[in-house]
């Protein structure tokens, strides 16, 4: 039986979405004096202002029809219940169990795994590994991007340990850390869901070599495994007390809540990590309970689908006006593009609408002096997100933070209003959409809620597109070919261009 049962209703709802009247943002504000309160959502210590998007009551009605046609409620329930919604891999999707949501057995298992993590952190604090100053975290993709973001965003000033996250197989990345860290005071965390990823295993081996070379007595004893494949870590000689497992049903790009978040929990302390989980849980409750027109992830997904399918936007830009969130766009690139960068639906048919945006971004105010020219006057439509904290965490003249926020707000206002000039080169078309996400201060709870918001928005986009957001077969072919080139560079099956590259560089 087809998994997408209501194709006719879905097509009709999309037609209704496309037939909505097009009004400018200026018109929408003029026509509805309650627009702002209608499109601002405050939840989980975050304030989302969607009013500078082209959503209005007509579009909301059409998109709610689409939600219904896509069986959204059932799909969301299935996600929260821990059903096997990742159909191509026959797995449940249970990262929310780490935040206390889902099947009781999965929540209990997550608690048990968190307790193991906490025990190890307490042992490290108590000196079980001698003096420890540094943690070298080795992983890639979802096993690196989340921890790296958390460390950079939350522990810059206050980290209890010095953590470096190395992902790239390019030896320069590891060597840079070797220069800074004392091998005798370093622990190595090898983070890999599968514990087979080639880059991670090679980096782990080289880190061991580095320790040996510097006379560390038992390098193996300083290695910690963060993995959903504990058997493989055991095989490699890692003691059970230093294996921090997580469930197979947690996707790599959703795994920072699990033991993959170990470096953040170590550097922040357990309480801080707990607050991160609670922030995520607050967003889970909001996503589950709030009506669609007041539901931040759902509204964001409506806007995504509108700009993508109706207005033809190809990308969306994430600009944090906060130096500590400079890694957020990289984290979100994997979350959104690996989840929804698909071309077939749950029944294996080609989808009718463009899939995930290309996600990109940067930090304000830097980006204003580099890429905002295109946003204001270029020919492409790029929906933008501004993210900022109201409270300053620097100790300099308060004018710094005030200037930062002033600029964020000015950019959103300018993109929307535009400005006419008789010289076309100095004219701004305006009517360009943005969403502003504000938090009182950037702390673990707020970051947890923000990340969970993006997770649920990604899920909602996946449901509206009828795709499976939880597999990633698109990355496999390249991996296979890399093995093939490494094992048989002389292979005559490669195309002439690739053969010439191999001949030039890999003889
Ligand atoms: O190649 C893509 C991918 O499978 C990601 O989905 C994943 O986050 C990353 O590789 C790392 O995988 P692992 O955690 O198994 O090392």
UniProtKB/TrEMBL annotation:
Enzyme Commission designation: 5.3.1.9
Transmembrane segments: none
Pathway assigned to this chain's UniProt record: Carbohydrate degradation; glycolysis; D-glyceraldehyde 3-phosphate and glycerone phosphate from D-glucose: step 2/4; Carbohydrate biosynthesis; gluconeogenesis
Database matches in InterPro entries: G6P_Isomerase, G6P_Isomerase_C, Phosphoglucose_isomerase_CS, SIS_dom_sf, SIS_PGI_1, SIS_PGI_2
UniProt subcellular location: Cytoplasm
Active site: 338, 369, 479
Main localization of the protein described in the UniProt heading: cytoplasm
PROSITE patterns xref list: P_GLUCOSE_ISOMERASE_1 (PS00765), P_GLUCOSE_ISOMERASE_2 (PS00174), P_GLUCOSE_ISOMERASE_3 (PS51463)
Reactions that this protein is recorded to catalyse: alpha-D-glucose 6-phosphate = beta-D-fructose 6-phosphate
GO biological process: gluconeogenesis; glucose 6-phosphate metabolic process; glycolytic process
GO cellular component labels: cytosol
Record flagged with keyword NAD: no
Key words, A-Z: Cytoplasm, Gluconeogenesis, Glycolysis, Isomerase
GO MF annotation list: carbohydrate derivative binding; glucose-6-phosphate isomerase activity; monosaccharide binding
Function as written in the Swiss-Prot or TrEMBL entry: Catalyzes the reversible isomerization of glucose-6-phosphate to fructose-6-phosphate.
Membership in a protein family: Belongs to the GPI family.
Matches recorded under NCBIfam families: PRK00179.1
PANTHER family: GLUCOSE-6-PHOSPHATE ISOMERASE
Name the record gives this protein: Glucose-6-phosphate isomerase
Organism: Zymomonas mobilis subsp. mobilis (strain ATCC 10988 / DSM 424 / LMG 404 / NCIMB 8938 / NRRL B-806 / ZM1)
């Amino acid at each position: 039986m087809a998994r997408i049962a209501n194709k006719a209703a879905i097509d009709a709802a999309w037609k209704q979405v496309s037939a909505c009247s097009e009004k400018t943002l200026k018109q929408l504000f003029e026509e509805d004096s309650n627009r702002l309160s209608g499109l601002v959502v405050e939840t989980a210590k975050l304030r989302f202002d969607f009013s500078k998007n082209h959503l209005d009551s007509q579009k909301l009605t059409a998109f709610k029809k689409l939600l219904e046609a896509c069986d959204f409620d059932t799909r969301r329930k299935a996600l929260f219940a821990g059903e096997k919604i990742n159909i191509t891999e026959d797995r449940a999707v249970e990262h929310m169990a780490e935040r206390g949501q889902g099947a009781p057995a999965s929540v209990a298992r997550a608690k048990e795994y968190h307790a193991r993590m906490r025990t190890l952190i307490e042992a490290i604090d108590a000196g079980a590994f001698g003096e420890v100053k540094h943690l070298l975290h080795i992983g890639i993709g979802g096993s690196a991007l989340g921890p790296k973001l958390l460390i950079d965003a939350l522990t810059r000033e206050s980290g209890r340990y010095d953590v470096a996250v190395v992902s790239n197989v390019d030896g320069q990345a590891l060597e840079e850390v070797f220069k800074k860290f004392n091998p005798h005071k370093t622990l190595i965390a090898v983070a890999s869901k599968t514990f087979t990823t080639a880059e991670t295993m090679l980096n782990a081996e080289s880190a061991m070599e580095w320790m040996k070379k510097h006379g560390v007595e038992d390098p193996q004893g300083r290695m910690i495994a963060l993995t959903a494949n504990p058997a493989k870590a055991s095989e490699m000689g890692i003691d059970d007390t230093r294996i921090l497992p997580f469930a197979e049903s947690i996707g790599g790009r959703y795994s920072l809540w699990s033991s993959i978040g170990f470096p953040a929990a170590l550097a922040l302390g357990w309480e801080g990590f707990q607050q991160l989980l609670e922030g995520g849980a607050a967003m889970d409750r909001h996503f589950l309970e709030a009506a669609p027109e007041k539901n931040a992830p759902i509204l964001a997904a409506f806007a995504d689908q509108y700009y993508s399918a109706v207005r033809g936007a190809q990308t969306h830009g994430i600009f944090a006006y906060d130096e500590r969130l400079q890694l957020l766009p990289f984290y979100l690139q994997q979350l959104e593009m690996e989840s929804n960068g698909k071309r077939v639906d749950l029944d294996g048919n080609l989808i009718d609408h463009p899939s995930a945006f290309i996600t990109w971004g940067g930090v304000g105010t830097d980006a204003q002096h580099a890429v905002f020219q295109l946003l204001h006057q270029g020919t492409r439509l790029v929906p933008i997100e501004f993210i900022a904290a109201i409270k300053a965490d620097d100790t300099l003249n308060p004018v710094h933070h005030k200037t930062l926020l002033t600029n964020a707000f000015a950019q959103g206002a300018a993109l929307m209003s535009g400005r006419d000039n008789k010289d076309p080169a100095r004219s701004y078309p305006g009517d360009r959409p943005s969403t502003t996400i504000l938090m009182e201060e950037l702390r673990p709870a707020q970051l947890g809620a923000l990340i969970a918001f993006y997770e649920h928005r990604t899920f909602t986009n996946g449901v509206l597109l009828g795709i499976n957001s939880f597999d990633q077969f698109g990355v496999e072919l390249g991996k296979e070919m890399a093995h093939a080139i490494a094992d048989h560079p002389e292979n005559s099956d490669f195309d002439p261009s690739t053969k010439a590259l191999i001949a030039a560089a890999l003889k």
